[in-house]
Amino acid sequence: MGTLERKEREKEQRKNDILFAAEKIFYEKGFETATMQDIANYCELSKGTLYLYFKTKNELCIAIYSKSLQIFQKQLSEKISETDDSLKKIQSIAPCFIDFIKKYPAYYQAILNYRQHSSLCSEDSDFIRKSSILHKEITNLIRKIIEDGIIAKEISSDIDSEQIANLIWNEKTGILSCATLSSKNGLDYEACNSVNYFIEILIKAIKEKELE
Asked: What's the CA gap between 45 and 59, in Å, rounded?
């Protein structure tokens, strides 16, 4: 391994160590109470070194948000690969998201808080760019399900795949990303049922009508 490659790996490892520390401290102390000094102390770094990797606490939260999208994207990809039926794939999206919340409540919270933290970060932030790419990849994953369903004549050909994908998954208006599926005591099952019901109604609306 060359010197440059080794340095890059060390840099990436340090970034991951900082992110791990931030997740732990934000969870224990809360975002408002936690400080960059707390995170630096946990990593045994100077605060100046910490700022070389993350400019603000908000950037750290965006990095955690990106990590949450990566986890959900992997989980969703695995789930929809279990069937070739496009309608069943769409039907599985809501349960998959709810399962994600159960397993990773802190990462779900990062999704809910994305807009708050992104508005306080520089628009040219690498972390904002990365999260935007991941968000788009998830949207495209859902859009492809719909387009494949149209080709297979399982979904009506007059459906706008991009609009439906955004309706399901969008950082501002999507039924999944905006629905409050958790509470202080855990999952809000009434809200979960509402999301599942929405998906059922959506499937009925986009399903290719059988010829009489």
From this structure: 18
Query: Could you please report the per-residue DSSP string of 13-67?
Result: HHHHHHHHHHHHHHHHH-TTT--HHHHHHHHT--HHHHHHH-SSHHHHHHHHHHH
pTM given for the model: 0.86
pLDDT tens string, the chain, 212 residues long: the values are 678 788 888 889 999 999 999 999 998 998 889 999 999 999 999 999 999 999 999 999 999 999 999 999 999 999 999 999 999 999 999 899 888 888 888 888 888 888 788 888 887 888 899 999 999 999 999 999 999 999 999 999 999 999 999 989 886 667 776 665 555 555 677 777 888 888 999 999 999 876 43
Q: 135: which 2 tokens?
A: 């968000």
Round to whole Å and give the CA distance between 162 and 170. 11
Rounded CA gap, 47 and 195, in Å? 43
CA distance 61 to 153: 42
Domains of the chain (ranges; CATH) run 1-54 (1.10.10.60), 60-206 (1.10.357.10)
